[in-house]
Amino acid sequence: MILDLPALLVVLAPRQRLIGIDPGRKSIGLALSDVNRTVASPVTTLKRRRLRVNAAEIVALARREDAGGLVVGLPLSLDGAFGPAAQAARDWTRDLSDATGLPATLWDERLSTATIQRMLIEEADLGRARRAAIIDRMAAAYILQAALDAGQALRQNAAARQSPD
Question: Using N-to-C axis directions, what is the helix angle for 128-162 and 112-122, rounded to 10°?
Answer without folding.
Answer: 120
